[in-house]
Amino acid sequence: GMFGNFRDRWAGRREEILRLQAIASDRAGVIMGLTKYIRLMLQTAILDRISASLCNAVTGRDDGQTTLDTLERSNLFIIPLDEQRQWYRYHRLFADLLGQRLLQMQPDTIPVLHRRAGEWCEQGIQLEQNSLQLHLTLGRAKAFGGDLAGACECLERCVELDPSDSSVRAELGDLYLRRYQYGPAIEHFRTALSRNPKQASL
């Protein structure tokens, strides 16, 4: 499953865990002030990339921009992905924690959240056909919904837009593997490893 082997994903990441613990301890007061945003953060933990309007679409709320602005000002748990501060991602371990918590508390909402994300991206792509973030998010939503062919199509577009992204190459290889298309799977895995040898140990 999407959140399966949760503990395995933490193996060898002790330093990151300790760093997060140190941040949490040092900024405990700030973190307490973020509790009103926890529902939004839980529901958007399914997303590898987040924007204010995508947060709103997925959660049905209207405070996505306020939440992201607050998290960024607090210097906690999110990382900007562009100079315009339109797209962000959660710190990997924090996303894992949120995702595990969502799985425990509201497992039935996860397919709904993915569907909302996919619908929002499909609308956005009509206006921004060259948006890497939109194609990537839509591809992952399709994969979660079982549309592996559609997911491959979206991620192939991502590769066209950014051939250097080894993580997308590896993800695409995994999708082809799940479709029993071993030729494309091997090709993408080889390319991913040639660009980022560290992935060989994952």
- Total number of strands: 2
Give me the strand/helix succession: HHHHHEEHHHHHH
Please list the strands of the largest sheet in the order they lie side by side.
1-2
- The assigned structural class equals mainly alpha
Give the distance, in angstroms, between the N- and C-terminal Cα atoms.
17 Å
Shape: globular
- Main sheet record: 2 strands, antiparallel
Identify the quaternary structure here.
single chain
Helix % is 55-70%
Mean pLDDT: 80
Query: What is the beta-strand fraction?
Result: under 5%
Question: Segments where pLDDT lies below 50 for 5+ residues?
Answer: 1-12, 25-32
Spatial extent as radius of gyration? 17 Å
Quickly count the helices: 11
Walkthrough of the structure:
The protein is mainly alpha-helical. Helix 4 crosses helix 5 and helix 4 packs across helix 7. The two termini are 17 Å apart.
